[in-house]
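Pasting as-is:
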Amino acid sequence: MLEQFVMEYRGFSARRGRCHVLLDRELASVLVGDPSDNPGTSVTNAIERVAYEVCEWFGVNAYEEALYQYVPWEPRFRRELTSQVEFEKDAWAMPTWTEADQAGEFLSEALDVVRAIQPYQLTEMTQLEVVNGLVRLRIEAGFDKYDWIAEVGTIEHISQRRVFYVDVAAGSPNDALSRAREQLSAIVDPELIQVTRTGAPLDRAEW
């Protein structure tokens, strides 16, 4: 069965990338589309990270199974391009792209879905679940808790009031909050762990 998601990923720019993921778990096949309004690094330039995140989130071995990439406009060919991406060993090996045979069961169905989205932009995919998004947590704790808090996510800032601001990859704010509270239950009062956002003033939680 074909499933669709929008997946965030870390790239080489300040903003995280967002791609369109179509997968069939039974066929162990994944198509990653690069919407024209992707706010971050292109899928091509971050393909190793994208493949890794596909493995982590969906349990599909994207660097050993069938991984395809869709670009709505490839300047070299002046048309859309669908490629099969292959890795020599793992997600951090040098990838190779070859133009894909579109006649297969999975790819034919996936491309029908992709081409029906016009324009091929994230603004046309708002109904899809977003996975691997970053949620920022505000955690009040002493500096002696640093190592435990670092296990929760990426510490982006520590204020003089001993407040940690931690970015956590999660499916939703509630997911990030519940996991952090569980991980730190032995050392931090759950009420001292709250969700905030990247643009919020420091030392101020948003409820």
